[in-house]
Write a structure and sequence with these properties.
Blueprint lengths: L1 E6 L3 H11 L5 E7 L2 H11 L3 E5 L7 H11 L4 E6 L5 H9 L3 E4 L4 H12 L7 H11 L20 H11 L4 H8 L3 H15 L4 H11 L10
Parallel strand pairs: 1-2, 1-3, 3-4, 4-5
Helix pairs in contact: 2-3, 3-4, 6-10, 7-9, 7-10, 8-9
Length: about 220
């Protein structure tokens, strides 16, 4: 059973999220918090597996609460929510340590799937949605550099650098495999190497790092 804490300053939203998750036998909604400070306190008390965290809340906002939980209670993984998918605070939440984010107008099925995904330690962010968000809010003055000629940071091989760039432009693993004519399992192995050498936890943080390094510039798209 996945223990879930819900944090949102709107009682109706909290109740709605709880009503979506509670009937599923895979979940136990262990608590609700009306602000970020309360969310942090309850997380330490209740030790949930996943915290569904609204970004904009009083007292302590969702970004600050996420950063605090990532630092002090990393086993409680944060899934951030935002009213809009184009929201600069969501990028801040990913930087702070959230395992993913969703807009609040998602379907119940998408919420359930995302909580499951975050619980496994994966990033619950659609690659193209993540790319669109970051290309809006993470600005780089550098032009995108060809992977073959770019300087590989932290010992990345030319192939890892190429895969990092394709990942940052919005391709999923199957699309990368098709583009490079290699197997999906080989792509996954290279991505693991990219994460390790960049010192990032997941795909979301790797894409942010690509924009901030200048490997991919804001607005750049594959193809």
């Amino acid at each position: 059973m996945i223990r879930v804490l819900i944090a949102d300053d709107q009682p109706l939203v909290r109740r709605g999220l709880a009503l979506i998750l509670a009937p599923d036998p895979a979940f136990e909604v262990v608590g609700e918090a009306e602000d970020g400070a309360r969310a942090v306190a309850l997380a330490h008390e209740l030790r949930p597996d996943v915290v569904v965290m609204d970004i904009r809340m009083p007292v302590l906002d969702g970004v600050q609460a996420t950063e605090e939980l990532a630092r002090t209670l990393p086993e409680s993984r944060v899934l951030a929510l935002s009213t809009f998918d184009m929201d600069e605070y969501v990028v801040a939440a990913l930087r702070a340590g959230a395992y993913g984010f969703l807009p609040k107008d998602i379907s119940p099925e998408e919420l359930i799937a995302a909580v499951h995904t975050v619980h496994t330690g994966e990033a619950a962010v659609a690659p193209r949605l993540l790319t669109r968000l970051i290309s809006t809010y993470v600005r780089s003055s550098a032009r995108p550099r060809p992977a073959a000629t770019a300087t590989a940071p932290d010992g990345l091989t030319p192939r890892e650098l190429e895969i990092w760039q394709l990942m940052a432009t919005g391709l999923d693993n199957a699309e990368i495999a098709g583009d490079l004519e290699i197997s999906v399992s080989t792509v996954k192995n290279h991505i693991t190497g990219v994460f390790t050498k960049l010192g990032v936890r997941d795909r979301a943080q790797a894409v942010i790092a690509a924009y901030e390094s200048g490997l991919v510039a804001a607005g750049h798209r594959s193809g």
